[in-house]
Amino acid sequence: MPYISRDSNGHISAVFRDTHATASEFISLNAPELVSFIGAPANTELFHSLDSDLIRVIEDVIDALIRKNLLLLTDLPPEAQTKILARRNLRQSLPQSTSILSPNDGLI
């Protein structure tokens, strides 16, 4: 969590990664006043939704590259392999296909 210092009005005046002589109060990364202070968009749900959509696109691109023998799953770091396989297994267990690309989509 970040540490903050406040001005005389109680508003955030600085943010630090670690405790600091003038910043011993820690605050949640999701605290509205911190989000406002750093200038993050008010609608972070939109970003989360876009991130989820982008993850789906990346998964489908990886699958397409593997199908076309342009990428081997073993070319990726072991941690990435584990995560990709776990998400693939979960998606395959869902009642309907969640792939946004069909196997016949020509990406390359």
Average pLDDT reading = 82
Strand order in the largest sheet:
2-1-3
* Poorly predicted ranges: none
Count, helices: 3
How big is the Rg?
21 Å
Structural class: mainly alpha
Gross geometry: elongated
- Total domain count: 2
Explain what you see.
This is Tryptophan synthase subunit beta like protein. The chain is mainly α and 108 residues long. It folds into two domains: 36 residues, no CATH class; 50 residues. Strands 2-1-3 form a three-stranded antiparallel beta sheet, covered by helices on one side. The radius of gyration is 21 Å and the shape is elongated. The chain starts with a strand and ends in a 15-residue tail after the last helix.
Kindly summarize this structure in a few lines:
The chain is mainly α and 108 residues long.
Question: Which key features would you list for this structure?
Answer:
single chain, 108 residues, mainly alpha, 2 domains, 3 helices, 3 strands
